[in-house]
């Protein structure tokens, strides 16, 4: 069995997105201040083939695009991963045009404090995220890595914008093309990770959800991928597994065999996503009845660390850092 790291990795999910609008340099910078080892940019492409950090290529909910009359005519409906989406899409805008937009909070009802920052921050490029990680690594004396996710890679390939070679080239230009580089590339799709495995030595992570299957149809279901045989197949092209958190510890608090099975296959395990609000927590870890109120996220993280995970994604890196430190201290006292 692969041993768990002495100090599991703290991965800032879209930055410190519990406290700043997600996928902004402000969110990433705050996450680094709060102790994150890795910052996570979801990557989509512009019309002129530049990687930018957005949760989706549909930027309706994360920018002020809907209020910009000069772009009203570009509203469109697209089928992405088999589902119709109506809004504004990054592939219809040049980087120069996107830079005129400003980010806004995606979940204002749950995170009204973040909405105070609406209109303040640009949409960052991957190059800017890399530069930030390198600059803050020098400032802090810690190695700050990036953990990009290729979003809807099959869709982008279908419109003539394959992601893999472009991403590898940009990482290589940053000096990152080895298994020891401070980079993990993650995807819910399978075939794009397999392509990446032929292009780069950077570590790859297969994302899996509790239901459904990979959007590219490369496996019948995520469940089929999580058998011991399926995990061994993943280990043929990836270094890690990124499971939705109930796949590791159920909502009832039961530890599943997944971490042990993944470790036996040679995979590290980085579950997602730990969020402080009651809305996102198991029933027994909620505090009061307000869905926006902070519940017992420290306890949820501790359950997963006790299950042997090698790292975890959180919207609240300072809480993740606190919970991780408490777990490491307790383990040292045993």
TrEMBL record:
Transmembrane segments: none annotated. SUPFAM superfamilies: PLC-like phosphodiesterases. The keyword Membrane does not apply. Pfam families: GDPD. It catalyses: a sn-glycero-3-phosphodiester + H2O = an alcohol + sn-glycerol 3-phosphate + H(+). Keywords: Glycerol metabolism, Hydrolase, Signal. CDD domains: GDPD_ScGlpQ1_like. InterPro entries: GP_PDE_dom, PLC-like_Pdiesterase_TIM-brl. Residues 8-324 form the GP-PDE domain. Its EC number is 3.1.4.46. It is an enzyme of class 3 (hydrolase). Belongs to the glycerophosphoryl diester phosphodiesterase family. This is glycerophosphodiester phosphodiesterase. It comes from Sphingomonas qomolangmaensis.
């Amino acid at each position: 069995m692969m041993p768990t790291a002495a100090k599991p990795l703290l991965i800032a999910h879209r930055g410190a997105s519990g406290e700043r609008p997600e996928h902004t340099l402000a969110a990433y910078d705050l996450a680094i201040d709060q102790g994150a080892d890795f910052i996570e940019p979801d990557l989509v492409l512009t019309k002129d083939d530049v990687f930018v950090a957005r949760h989706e290529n549909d930027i309706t909910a994360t920018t002020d695009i809907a209020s910009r009359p000069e772009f009203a005519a570009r509203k469109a409906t697209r089928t992405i991963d088999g589902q119709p989406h109506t809004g504004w899409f990054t592939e219809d805008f040049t980087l120069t045009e996107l830079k005129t937009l400003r980010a806004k909070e995606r979940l204002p009802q749950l995170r009204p404090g973040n909405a105070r920052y609406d209109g303040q921050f640009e949409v960052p490029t991957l190059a800017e995220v890399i530069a930030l990680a390198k600059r803050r690594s020098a400032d802090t004396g810690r190695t700050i890595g990036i953990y990009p996710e290729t979003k809807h890679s099959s869709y982008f390939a279908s419109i003539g914008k394959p992601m893999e070679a472009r991403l590898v080239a940009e990482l290589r230009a940053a000096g990152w093309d080895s298994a020891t580089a401070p980079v993990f590339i993650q995807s819910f799709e399978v075939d794009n990770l397999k392509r990446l495995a032929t292009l780069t030595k950077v570590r790859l992570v297969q994302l899996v959800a509790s239901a459904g299957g990979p959007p590219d149809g490369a496996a019948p279901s995520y469940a089929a991928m999580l058998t011991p045989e399926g995990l061994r197949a993943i280990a043929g092209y990836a270094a890690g597994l990124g499971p939705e958190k109930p796949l590791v510890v159920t909502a009832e608090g039961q530890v599943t065999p997944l971490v042990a099975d993944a470790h036996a296959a040679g995979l590290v395990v980085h579950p997602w996503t730990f969020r402080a609000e009651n809305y996102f927590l198991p029933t027994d870890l909620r505090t009061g009845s307000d869905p926006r109120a902070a519940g017992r996220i420290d306890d949820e993280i501790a359950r997963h660390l006790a299950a042997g995970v090698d790292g975890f994604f959180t919207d609240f890196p300072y809480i993740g850092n606190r919970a991780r430190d408490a777990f490491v201290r307790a383990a040292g006292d045993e």
